[in-house]
Give the backbone structure.
Amino acid sequence: MTWQMARRTARMNPSSIREILKVTERPGIISLAGGLPAAEAFPVEAMRDASARVLRDTPREALQYAASEGLPGLREWVAAHLAESGMRVDASQVLITSGSQQGLDLLGKVLIDAGSAVAVESPTYLGALQAFGVFEPEWVTVPCDSEGPLPEGLARARGARFLYALPNFQNPSGRLIGAARRQGLVAAASQLGLPIVEDNPYGDLWYDAPPPPPLAALWPEGVAYLGSFSKVLAPGLRLGYLVAPPELMPKLLQAKQAADLHTPGFNQRMVLEVLRTGLLAEHVPAIRARYRARRDAMAQALRSHLPDTCRWELPQGGMFFWVQLPAGCDASALLPKAVARGMAFVPGSAFFAEGASESSLRLSFVTATPEQIELGVRMLAETLKEAS
Amino acid sequence: MTWQMARRTARMNPSSIREILKVTERPGIISLAGGLPAAEAFPVEAMRDASARVLRDTPREALQYAASEGLPGLREWVAAHLAESGMRVDASQVLITSGSQQGLDLLGKVLIDAGSAVAVESPTYLGALQAFGVFEPEWVTVPCDSEGPLPEGLARARGARFLYALPNFQNPSGRLIGAARRQGLVAAASQLGLPIVEDNPYGDLWYDAPPPPPLAALWPEGVAYLGSFSKVLAPGLRLGYLVAPPELMPKLLQAKQAADLHTPGFNQRMVLEVLRTGLLAEHVPAIRARYRARRDAMAQALRSHLPDTCRWELPQGGMFFWVQLPAGCDASALLPKAVARGMAFVPGSAFFAEGASESSLRLSFVTATPEQIELGVRMLAETLKEAS
């Protein structure tokens, strides 16, 4: 008995990040690889209270089937929350998703045909490459500098179904698209008729200054926007949202229904309870302070230990440093040696749709403590020294 | 600005069931349309205890990112549970999904190319048509009688990627594939090299006798099997599982990762806590008793009120009666009239991939009380009488 698989499965290969995460689950390894939020910062008390309230006040509603669109109160909260960043969104444009990863899957279903072009940054988020890849696009990589895509480079993406961009503290590069660049990108994209999928998991994790208004605020009819509760509350509830122009909503809703009927109502109610306590007003600044200290610890460690031949910039938010190794240095080949010394990172090559850079790597500063970061970076430096 | 949509969106149209459910949310309507489990039977106390225990004992693990495969303890529970029905499954073959609906999506991704044939029963589950339809198959409907697909009819499906079958108390027809027919189907399918996707959301809801062993027990290498906690515990947690031959697992896991990273760890831990209390041993028989009484009430009401020109069989389990109206009677045209009288059903035409029968309808007996069922069926009979 042989099962004939779909052609797309040829593209579906194990995520190197996941495989590495497995190795680094071994006790004693300092992992700067994963993008796991600091679990000690999860608002456990608030979750306990919220869970108890939901199961006391609306247990049957929380445990019953629910609307595919999401809980009305949560959709309204999202619309109101986005207004603070300059987006004018009606709750009817908000689709609650099972994490923002699912938003990528739904957009892929609704917008990508096999062989159609999809434009991405260089580097870009691995999970988006995986989600969109299922629908067999042709990748177009737009030229980028330290501030993200170059507006004059978007012409390469003419005719693409959309440009996927992560403007705030990008995973993996940490870079921020500045206000003027955002204006330039939207001007170029609207002239080309090139829609944008804007992914914003990290916008609340700024350490120096809040990011500029999202692309979706500048060009509402041309941008589909993804947000998440994973970084400001907890990822294990798998709760995100997708905001899209009204013309896309009916098809996105159909895709959502076909994918999993709806996102768990219990989880939606729990998070809405937490949000209504006003917890975020104190909790998000506390997370920022915690992560800022870790970012600074990593910057200090990189300055102290890494050779001058390595280049990196200080990320103004998010979770990651992106390190350029000396030319000719292969990060993937370095990884097992680093693991043998007791630390792990993610080789940069995983984050490119095409033309992968072998000499870059990603370091996360949010999961490990400042002491572990100092030790982990020192091990990385020793590994580099030994290999050169 | 126009967004170019994927070709598949032409197939993604509003579910008539969902649209009807919206109408029937109006107070005062007796809905025999939806497939909602009886919310008053949800084990709320057990959920409360489990939720409190999870957030007391493993809050950080429950709220953190988790493995795409699912919680190891839950995968082991599923493997052990399936052994009771004759399936020999290793926990490594169990993928925890966000409801069994997601299992359909993942199988579609891994097995269906645009234009490849997929075989279905007549009628079949609407949600499967929606989930698989996203991947643009050509439907092949296999001939069925009151016991499901005819083994000699499978030849029509030669070369199809799989046959999708719901052997236990099918949604919508309520029919059960008997033991001998199962043997015949597996013999025919294995000779043809035709894999089977076996969907089993209702197997525990038997009212007269337990169903025969699943197709997956008879032909492990040729069957992918879907199960769910929605009917025995609660659907709002969105928790199901997919069991597949080992050769499919790596690609299914990649598809799962790309779809939503993982099913919420909190929900998995909560359900595992509930399962470990042994609750199901008492809870499932109690659900059976409740639903059996409602089935019997509906059978009594149908006997009392429906004209002899309508045909239906007593379902031995599940949630639904399937009623054949007199030839020429159009159930879709009847629906608004029934709603005007105060009751709702689902027209049968929604449940066919091709060659829809206009003169059938589905009635759910699990959500409404016996009194409401009696009243709703009487309204249906009056609507029929008025229309004839």
Observations:
- The CA atoms of residues 66 and 265 of chain B lie 6 Å apart.
- The mean pLDDT of chain B is 95.
